[in-house]
Amino acid sequence: MHTLKFICRTTVGFFKEVWLLPHSVAVALQQRRRRFALNIIEAERLDRIRNPSKYRGK
Length: 58
Prior knowledge:
Elements: H1 2-50
């Protein structure tokens, strides 16, 4: 009985992961885009600190 219960839980868990996979991929891509945008903003901020003469008058 315990073996059958374990097999059923494992199978259900597997199908649940497969069902949620597209959502997980979409979330991962969204986080990657957000991190990339923040890295660009941070790079510009550091450049402004290091080279203030390039940004005079902007």
